[in-house]
Amino acid sequence: MPRQKPKREIGNHRCGECANVVEETKFNTLSIKGEPTMGRCPHYKEGKFCVLLSDRSCINFKPRNEVK
After folding, report:
1. What is the pTM of this model?
2. In this predicted structure, what is the pLDDT of residue 41?
3. CB 17 within 8 Å of CB 63
4. Residue 21 in 3-state DSSP?
5. How many CB atoms neighbour CB 2 within 10 A?
6. Which residue in 11, 25, 40, 52 has a CA-CA distance of 20 to 30 Å to 59?
7. pLDDT tens, 2-56?
8. CA distance 1 to 10
């Protein structure tokens, strides 16, 4: 029997909006526009901590306190 993946679809937030995620700014993880597409999350163990910033957030979501 295959292992069940943990449910990551909680709420309407994205991983890129979470305070736990550190954005990767290496050349191979940037989009065509030069924006980061991947990040590192300490709670995501499946892909060695890498997550897509456009994925839905998990239960450990914390909003960022960005000042613009």
Report:
1. 0.63
2. 87
3. yes
4. coil
5. 4
6. 25
7. 655 555 555 688 888 889 888 877 777 788 888 888 888 888 776 567 888 888 8
8. 25
